Amino acid sequence: xxxxxAVVAAVGLLTTGCSAELTGGDTDMALPxxxxxxxxxxxxxxxxxxLPLSAYGTSQQEDILLFRTNEALVARCMNSLGYKNYxxxxxxxxxxxxxxEREAIxxxxxxxxxxxxxxxxxxxxxxxxxxxxxxxxxxxxxxYNVCWDKADKQVPSxxxxxxxxxxxxxxxxxFQKAASDSRVVAARKSWSSCMGEAxxxxxxxxxxxxxxxxxxxxxxxxxxxxxxxxxxxRSSNLAGVYFAVLTGYQKQLISANTEVLxxxxxxxxxxxxxxxxxxxxxxxx
Length: 285
What we know:
By secondary structure, this protein is mostly helical. Helix content is 60%, strand content 1%. It contains 12 helices and 2 strands. It has a two-stranded antiparallel ribbon. Helix 7 packs across helix 11 (238-256) and helix 8 crosses helix 10 (220-236).
């Protein structure tokens, strides 16, 4: 699970149950120590990708390497089948992101809202729609699928194995523990009081943002609520406390599951090394 998946994890694992294979129960976990005034991450994206568990998996640069390797292998296969003009899909996005781009990826969630610019411009409607490209059809699609399967087998992913599943479960447990931590609860109450004073009563930041998502477009009311959310997140330091607490729990979980996680990290590195070799061979072919 790479850094990009860490962002997804925040969406899908907030209520994930814990696997029976996890080492150490919740009763074994101590309240992690945090700074008196923990600094909030610059953006929600930075906060998620900077989490200890995000180090287990591929980095964003490695995700791009794997994408380019797969595309090169598919292109070579398609060319061998007679599709001489096939050169693959558009290259993967660049590995660098501006602050505004990072801000818009995941600004609002259980930690409140990080990103004044995005709040004023998009409110909570920040979902990024991937560009739609024309794909192969008919016989070409069948051949493409064959080439894709061949490429996938050359760089087998550890995704779905014991280490990957454990990482998913650990993410889920850390989110659950952080949500119920007394420091986070207190910061969330402070945030809620601030939101009430601003004229946007709310008890939970995530539910607040989700309440606007049924609308197709951003409304002035949503902009006002998101802007107030961002200000209250800062005044309550909800994001700072949340990510500090979350980091503390993840460190404990990693310490209790080091053996499997270390093995998973080794598998990921082998996958990346294999991809580098194949891509280099493809470039010189």
